[in-house]
Specification:
- The structure holds 3 protein chains of 3 kinds.
- Chain A is an all-alpha fold.
- Chain A is built from 14 helices and 2 strands, in the order ααααααβααααβαααα.
- The radius of gyration of chain A is 20 Å and the shape is globular.
- By secondary structure, chain B is an alpha/beta fold.
- In chain B, the strands form 3 sheets. Chain B has a 7-stranded mixed β-sheet with strand order 7-6-8-9-10-14-15, with helices on both faces.
- The longest helix of chain B has 25 residues.
- Chain C has 12 helices and 2 strands; from the N terminus they run αααααββααααααα.
- The chains are: A mainly alpha, B alpha/beta, C mainly alpha.
- Chains in contact: A-B, A-C, B-C.
- Chains A and B meet through helix 1, helix 2, helix 7, helix 12 and helix 14 of A and helix 1, helix 3, helix 4, helix 5 and helix 7 of B.
């Protein structure tokens, strides 16, 4: 996965341009879907930090998404703050502290224990959100009004959505860059080394638990950022965001796009949004389709769908050109 | 350890393929999901702040020839589907009938089916799709409370007439959308359920002292229980709560709750368990002789799934609050709509119409009346804005009888039925006996007043 | 009356523990011997209930007497056992890969099975009350208790005895324990590990299916019941120790009693109770009461 920073910047630029001009060509409904896809993209990228780079399968990543979303909802409702930047700042702080605490408890374990423990925390958060009814409105969730972006107020929701699309795009590109830099830094390389051979890593002197913890914190913080971005888009935050079935979504997204490639999870997230959208108009058995797709991917395309398609296309190209 | 690679043909191909693949999938998705015949509009980010109403074809002009599109946004999947599918059936029946009689001002009704999907964000997406892509004139259906709360501000922003059915949480018109313009609700809401039960107890069983509750642990259960207890304690100050059970939604094993409730020896048990929960609960409760030991049992909302309350599951003598519509009242002899609606429904779908189906009828009826009224007054086909203004404060009919629509908070109201379960040889499920109707003025909070505040302000 | 109530809380807890044990035992057996955490295990449970409802309806429609419905339950469990073997076959190609793939695969299976149930049987609950009513109720110190629930408790105990007997006094069972202990060695000594795996999956699925089938007359079969039971099963096997059947037994009793007492005394905590217990146990004593060795 070695790509130098010039290549990465090139792809980032191309992506950014395509996404920036998209609203001029498609209807506002699809612009909304792409915005949602980008939000989920950040979420999936953060999950993949744990899965692909650290080798930890988390079944509780929805916790961070919901955390960010609820920070926005509660701040807006209780503290009457309307600034999006304020929400993001608060989310950063709160999620950093919490992911440090939860991560400390979780990263001592791997595989099954880690998966179960993360799921347990996710459901615990769900129970708390439902239980503290007078504070969180329980299963009804919290209504989120349109916030101010960079100080700009929006009286009209359509114009808010247009501006918010670009806001999300910028943050998406920023998060992708930061995560990419982190994963290609010496720290990121150590993580992968730990993933592949933890015994040898320990002999070399890499502090395994500490590195895993930092990986967990990174994943948690970026996951929460995506949740915070989600809140003004969906205009409602509810406990189901951290229910165990939501955890399945992020796994699905990453598998769709391919977890072995950095951008895979983000691509998978965008595909997921559109896939779910079409599937729901065609059938009510959305879970069945998602399950079948995952099974097919696990059997045939273990590196993820888009990566494998890429491999196949490249393979055909090589055959044709004999290289 | 990998080394940095230069931009080679291979790497370029890798990523180009990935981006192209995404583009193809996104493009295919856009193409497939776009309803045929509709054009995707080109939106240029505008500097103006006005929004042209994207919904439907209603304009202040002569009657359009295109059909009126009504979007039915409800649960076609999930456990609510068995109840909500009747909304779709009722809509089909009603649309066919109206169309056969000439439609609404000559325009035929066309129904668009849309599932709520697994989460609130799919619900929000699909609502937007109905309005922005399918260009419906009216959206109606049954949403969960969280869905309804999420969609409410969007309905007002997109300016599409929307009529909720059994999305009866008080928070919609009391907190999130207190001055609704485009949003209406055709179902008698939660306050009416809880308060009518409390009033019924006061009128018929005023000597109760100990009350217990077995309610699903989510917002609806919490709200209903809170209002019921507040109302009952106002009406009968001697009442005390001896036990509250909070089984999560979807609990299948109620044995511990039953034992604990029996142990508290209540005089009356109030429960808003419904659908499969109430069926499981009753089955197990009967095994414990629950209903022989507890003198009074009141249930709200359970009757929405009355097809499941078969005679072997549900004993006689239990009180059910049937929201706003009970299929056997009014009898066909005095209310012709019932004479058509109930037998026709049963003939087609082999089930009797439930609460939601009745509400749907009144919703479409209200819309039709509003359109016709404005046209009669102005001679022009009404805009969406005119339609919703005409609907507010008007009245309509449904199989349940006459309904009024409050001007201030767009709430449809009709008397709330409470009855006692009875086994009848004519039906496989329990029917309601000793029907009593609590008037809306007695059990609905005045518009602009929060329900709990209203209850607490009662002077008895 | 305090003593009577205590007896009933105890019985309720036992009842709950019994059918949860049937689910948890299968889960822990599969985990202990194959080292696969079967996230689709809840589906065996729910399929057991639905298939039992189907067979029971078939029997009743053909005029068979009520006691034959016991047969229906057992047959349903056998069919679910076969389903388990089928799942194991589809897992075989994934054994040599990372354990995460197996988790992802069973996870996807749970989605598929969940929707298959809705596809085949619809969203309405399925019931079979005949057996429940048929067995009537016993009068314990003035309060009624359904006899069917006693029957479930009885089957729970019998199943534990059967499992213990199977793993310690039958050839297959002993071989299974050997494979759990050291797969390479057992294979080198001539044990057909692959067919053993299939048999173990059969047994695990059978008991989960039996749990679902048994519970049908007492409760309804509804979509989503599987994930509910699975959540509790996770907690049970963690408390008892991953891979330990004795642990599953003790864990079920603990969970059953805690839930019964919790509902009676602190009804508010019901929603978060089980996951709180899971997290606490995982943090304090992740190896559980009886450790990871399969016993």
């Amino acid at each position: 996965m070695g790509m130098n920073i010039k290549t990465f910047s090139l792809y980032l630029l191309v992506c950014g341009i395509i996404f920036a001009i998209a609203p001029f060509f498609i209807s506002s409904y699809y612009v909304y879907l792409i915005a949602l896809g980008m939000v989920y993209g950040i979420w999936a990228l953060s999950w993949n930090v744990l899965f692909n780079y650290t080798g930890l399968l988390s079944f509780g990543h929805a916790l961070w998404f919901a955390l960010g979303a609820y920070v926005v909802g509660l701040t807006q409702e209780r503290l009457m703050i309307m600034s999006m930047e304020c929400y993001l700042g608060l989310t950063l702080v709160v999620s950093f502290i919490l992911s440090l605490a939860v991560g400390y408890l979780c990263v001592r374990y791997t595989q099954i224990y880690f998966a179960l423990l993360t799921q347990g925390f996710s459901m615990l958060f769900y129970a708390m959100l439902v239980k503290f009814y007078s504070f969180t409105h329980g299963t009804d969730g919290i209504s989120v009004k349109v916030p101010a972006l960079l100080g700009m107020q929006f009286t009209n929701v359509e114009s808010f959505l247009r501006a918010y699309y670009y806001y999300i795009l910028l943050i998406f590109l920023l998060c992708a860059t930061i995560l990419w830099i982190m994963m290609n830094s010496p720290f990121g390389k150590s993580l992968q080394f730990i993933r592949d051979n933890s015994l040898r890593a320990r002999f070399i002197g890499i502090p395994i638990i500490k590195y895993r913890l930092w990986s967990f914190v990174i994943a948690g913080v970026f996951g929460a950022i995506s949740g915070a971005l989600f809140a003004p888009l969906n205009r409602q935050v509810c406990p189901e965001l951290t229910y165990w079935s939501s955890n399945g979504n992020v796994v699905f997204m990453t598998l769709l796009g391919g977890f072995s490639v950095f951008a895979g999870s983000a691509i998978g997230a965008i595909i997921f949004v559109f896939l779910q959208n079409i599937a729901l108009t065609l059938t009510i058995y959305w879970q069945l389709i998602a399950g079948i797709v995952i099974v097919v991917i696990v059997y045939l395309f273990p590196k993820g769908l888009t990566v494998s398609i890429k491999d196949m296309v490249v393979g055909m190209y090589k055959k044709v050109h004999g290289r | 350890m990998s080394e940095p690679k230069k931009v080679g043909r291979r790497t370029f191909l890798n990523y180009a393929t990935a981006i192209v693949a995404t583009g193809v999938i996104v493009g295919a998705a856009t193409y497939l999901a776009t309803p045929k015949g509709a054009t995707t509009t080109v939106t240029v980010p505008a500097a103006t702040t006005t929004v042209t109403a994207p919904g439907g074809t209603a304009t202040g002009k002569p009657i359009p020839s295109e059909p009126i599109k009504i979007g039915i946004l409800t649960f076609f999947s999930g456990s609510n589907a068995v109840v909500d599918v009747q909304i779709w059936w009722a809509a089909q029946m009603l649309a066919e009938k109206i169309n056969s009689e000439g439609g609404i001002l000559g325009r035929k009704i066309e129904l668009v089916q849309m599932d709520v999907g697994p989460n609130t964000d799919t619900c929000v997406q699909n609502y937007r799709k109905l309005v922005l892509e399918n260009h419906v004139d009216l959206v109606t259906g049954d949403l969960a409370s969280s869905n309804g709360l999420a969609v409410a501000p969007i309905c007002e922003e997109l300016k599409c007439p929307t009529i909720y059915l059994s999305t009866t949480t008080t928070h919609i018109f009391e907190d999130v959308d207190p001055k609704p313009k485009y949003l209406f609700r055709a179902g008698n809401y939660n306050t009416m359920e809880a308060v009518s039960c409390a009033l019924h107890i006061k009128r018929h069983h005023p000597d109760v002292k100990r009350v217990a509750g077995i309610n699903p642990d989510y917002a609806y259960g919490r709200d209903s229980w809170q209002m019921f207890v507040a109302a009952l304690q106002k009406l009968l100050p001697q009442v005390e709560v001896v036990y509250e059970a909070w089984p999560p939604l979807g609990t299948t094993d109620f044995t511990s709750h039953i034992t604990a409730t029996l142990n508290a020896k209540p005089d009356v048990v109030f429960s808003v368990l419904y659908a499969s929960d109430i069926v499981a609960f009753m089955k197990q409760a009967v095994g414990y002789g629950f209903f022989k030991q507890v003198p009074l049992f009141y249930n709200a909302l359970g009757y929405i799934s009355f097809n499941m309350l078969t005679k072997d599951v549900c004993p006689e003598g239990l009180y059910f609050q049937a929201r706003d519509y009970y299929f056997l009242w009014p009898p066909a002899e005095i209310w012709p709509i019932q004479g058509w609606f109930v037998p026709e429904f049963y003939k087609r779908w082999k089930q009797y119409p439930n609460i939601d189906a009745g509400q749907l009828y009144s919703a479409i009826d209200a819309y039709k009346r509003a359109v016709e009224k404005v046209y009669a007054l102005t001679g022009e086909y009404p805009t969406n804005e005119q339609i919703v203004e005409a609907m507010a404060g008007s009245s309509c009919v449904g199989p349940m009888g006459y309904r009024t629509i409050r001007r201030e908070d767009h709430q449809f109201l009709s008397p709330a039925p409470i009855g006692k379960s009875k086994h009848s040889p004519d039906y496989p499920f329990v029917i309601l006996d000793e029907l009593e109707f609590i008037q809306p003025e007695e059990c609905a909070a005045p518009p602009g007043v929060k329900s709990l505040d209203w209850i607490k302000s009662w002077k008895i | 009356m305090i003593p009577t109530t205590l007896i009933f809380y105890f019985l309720n807890g036992l009842f709950y523990a019994s059918y949860l044990f049937l689910v948890a035992s299968g889960l822990t057996i599969i985990l202990g011997i194959l080292n696969v955490l079967n996230l689709a295990h809840g589906s065996f449970y729910s399929f057991g209930a639905y298939v039992a409802a189907f067979i029971a309806t078939l029997f009743l429609n053909n005029g068979l007497p009520t006691p034959s419905l016991f047969m229906a339950l057992f047959m349903a469990a056998l069919l679910i056992g076969l389903m388990g073997s089928g799942v194991e076959f589809s897992l075989k190609p994934l054994y040599k890969r990372r354990q995460e793939y197996q988790l992802l695969f069973t996870f996807a299976l749970s989605f598929i099975f969940e929707d298959l149930i809705k596809l085949i049987w619809g969203f309405n609950p399925w019931t079979c009350p005949n057996l429940f009513a048929y067995m009537g109720a016993v009068n314990i110190l003035g309060q009624f208790y359904p006899s069917y629930d006693m029957f479930v408790i009885f089957i729970g105990f019998v199943s534990y005895l059967f499992i213990w007997f199977f793993f310690y006094h039958t050839r297959t069972g002993n071989l299974a324990r050997a494979v759990a202990f050291d797969k390479e060695m057992s294979s080198a000594l001539g044990v057909n590990v692959s067919s053993l795996y299939t048999k173990i999956f059969f047994i695990g699925a059978f008991f989960a299916g039996l749990g679902g089938a048994l519970i049908l007359p007492a409760i309804n079969a509804i979509p989503g019941m599987g994930s509910d039971a699975l959540g509790f099963a996770f907690v049970i096997i963690v408390i008892g120790g991953l891979g330990s059947v004795k642990g599953a037994f003790v864990g079920s009793l603990i969970v059953g009693m805690v839930r019964a007492v919790g509902i009676a005394l602190f009804p508010e905590i019901e929603l978060g109770l089980i996951f709180t217990v899971l997290v606490i146990v995982l943090i304090l004593k992740p190896q559980g009461l009886f450790g990871k060795r399969f016993e």
